[in-house]
Amino acid sequence: MTSYVPYHPDLEKPFPDEEELTRQVVAAMQRANEQVAAKHRHGLRDAHAKSHGVLAGELRVHSGLPSHLAQGLFAEARTYPVIVRLSTAPGDLRSDQVSVQRGFAIKVLGVPGPRAVDDGFTTQDFLLVNHPTLPVGTIGDYAKLQKLLESQPGQSDQQLKVTGLGARVAARTLTRLGRPLTPAIETLAAANNHILGETFHSMAALRYGDYVAKISAAPRSDNVRALTGVPVGRKAGESALRDLVADFFSHDSAEYELRAQLCADIEKMPVENASVLWPEELSPHQVVATLYLPAQDAYSDARRRYADDVLSFSPWHALEAHRPLGSIMRSRRAAYPQSSGYRHGYNGINQQEPAGIDELPA
Ligand code: HEM
């Protein structure tokens, strides 16, 4: 039987100059955010600005989980209400014809237990992206991207498309030569596929009760499994992803499985470098819950306004049992409140953390 690495605070090691590097990254993001707000005359998220669906659903924790999986939020077979916000990664409103990473943010409501930070909330957020690793896996690497972060708002959709095309050509060449793709090329070369068929990952590690894990969500029901790898039509327009999501949920429900990949070897599955892919041979993704999303109006104006302008998702909206781990996660503790605070202030809207699903408009 696999033995898993027990959680201990000493698993985290501070990155050299971590506070200063985080400050620089947050300041660069803030400058980018200001440019985007001025362009749209509306405050947007500094990352994952564009939403494509806002869903109410249920997280059904499975019964009979073995003790290594029955941890934290997943300790008991319970059903929790959730809000899911689907997004794409840029901190700007790009055409959906540009292939960019997709986000799947889950807010679990009414979760009891001690908090990772003293926020008084009862939510547990899982922020997932459709790639298993983050190419810049430490705050040191992330800080090297500052110039890029700040120049992005000035780039046109066309420039971004050309970057994606270049990455796809480079990826094909490297594959032909039998060479591995660099993480950056792999990320930029991703095809523009249907968002509902993707598998989404926490990329970085978090505490999993007595253990440490990465979390992912994968299509479970046949209707979303059938969408894996289905390209977005070239003529489907600027808001193709929203149209696909709204159309799907106007008549269909979907199920995803939530999975935990437990750390079984701290050297080969590090918490301090999110660019390292945790090998599935050492520890598979194990299903712990089903995410059920019923048919609904996935993008009413009221929902869009609530999810985009009122809500905030953050890995630090968390139980202590799911404390985010590693320098990338620690840097997010400063980045998310900065972006959210600026957006709410610019728009003159109070941030609210929901206590119940009734707060999500129909
Ligand atoms: C492990 C890697 C990461 C993942 C999986 C991730 C995922 C996400 C997702 C899914 C969202 C959208 C949440 C929503 O729908 O509201 C988001 C937003 C955001 N991310 Fe990340 N992210 C990562 C790393 C980072 C890092 C390193 C930073 C900066 C240091 C960052 C800064 C932000 C900011 C500022 C927002 C907008 C927050 C707001 O205004 O509410 N992210 N991220």
From TrEMBL:
<dbReference type="InterPro" id="IPR020835">
    <property type="entry name" value="Catalase_sf"/>
</dbReference>
<feature type="region of interest" description="Disordered">
    <location>
        <begin position="343"/>
        <end position="362"/>
    </location>
</feature>
<protein>
    <recommendedName>
        <fullName>Catalase</fullName>
    </recommendedName>
</protein>
<dbReference type="GO" id="GO:0020037">
    <property type="term" value="F:heme binding"/>
</dbReference>
